[in-house]
Fold this sequence. Notes:
Helix content: over 70%
Number of helices: 7
Number of strands: 0
Amino acid sequence: MLDVFYGAFSPACFALLGLWLVIVQIRLREWQGSAVHRRRAYAVALYFALPGIMSLLALVNPLDSAFWRISFAIVALGGAVVLATVRGLPLRGVAAGQPVAAGQPGAAVADAPPRPDQLGLATYIIGILIYVLIAALALTGGLAALRTEAILLTLLLFLGFNVAWLLLFDDRYPSHGRPPATAL
């Protein structure tokens, strides 16, 4: 029943992965010197590749529910582990929730609106939770679980787009490739 969805969703995921690889290639000189950017670029690739792989596996034998359930569970749990590992620690000089006296280093950071690091971290946490939920639903099985997984995979793709967007325009860690952007 969801063959049409997965038949369209998988190419969309791999097309986004291909576009992301072009972006990585364009910004490679900048990101090469930054372990943070390399990890994040890889994580974005996972946001596009893993849902695409799950969609392909759903099409291998749609009538064999055990196959898609096991493959979804393995890929989703693997995605959660790898995404958690790749993300690394948030890059803040001040731990969240700690007060900073005015005039001390980090005071502006403590009062600032959420930064891309915070938004990115939240997106990674949500992504990890979605992967775990997909694995749990796959182990549960049934048509309702498959439909819910399709919605969750779509949400993962949306989250991946947002992480990609944040990373694409992240100039807080300038590297050797170009000067940092200036505010108007």
